[in-house]
Here is the input.
Amino acid sequence: MKISSIEDLRRIKEEAQKRTLLREGKADYRVVVHMGTCGIAAGAREVMSAILDEIAKRGLTNVMVTQAGCIGLCDREPLVSVEKGEERILYGDITPDRARQIIASHLVNGQIVGDWVVHAEGRARR
Amino acid sequence: MKELSLHILDVVENSLRAKAKKVRISILEDTRENRLELVIEDDGEGMDEETLKMVRDPFFSGQGKKVGMGIPLLDQLTRQCEGNLEILSEKGKGTTVRATFQRDNLDLPPLGKLADTLFVIMASHPEVELEFIHRIDDCQWLFNSKKVEEELDLTEENRGVLLPAIREWIEYQEEILKGGIGNEDK
Here is the structure.
């Protein structure tokens, strides 16, 4: 369906409301996409777009997506941090596809995707 | 940067970091004069004259880093495209970045995924009022994030699902504008 008018958007809203009533997220995750100039040049916008898309598709409600600036790891951009309580996992070299996998594995199933982790805090090594 | 819309995102990031509550992005294209003008205005903290003098220096950053490439890259691009970059700022009032380009210059990257840029800004900064105007000669369409949000009753819960739809709607408006079909004021 082509979304071409405010009416279309209203209809989508109604549908969205029905869906969100069915699901209650339990994890309180914060996903941070690093969007300094280095991040943007490396593809952070596409990564963030994919993350928001995937969250919408899965109807996840307790995930907050936000952004931050450059943290000096420009060669590992795009960088994405996933935070929950004290735990903070920083993923590097993220593509839109990898971002979708992180949503599925880390946010939905609680499994950190070890291959792309650059830095991890607040969680005992397993 | 491969797209002009990525430069837009980068400059808007500066506005957001300067605690802007309202950001207006204008893309003004004039095919007869062969000009493209990009204006980003914000009501953020603004800069004093000293800072303003240094922003084009890649070894200056307002964020405590040693390097800041955003504005220098845009500055270079405007010069490559027979245009220029003008930055007006007043401490406590806000900043206006105005970049001009020769519209058909080979070095000018395409506008690219504008809808993605607006979508990403709206999603990560729900508190910010984003205004967008894209004009090609006598046709234009404009968009105000707060008005759309009010119109649709966006809430914390439905926001995540609705924003991707709004992105698609923006893409459609852009297509209409480029196709020259007509004016759209919403």
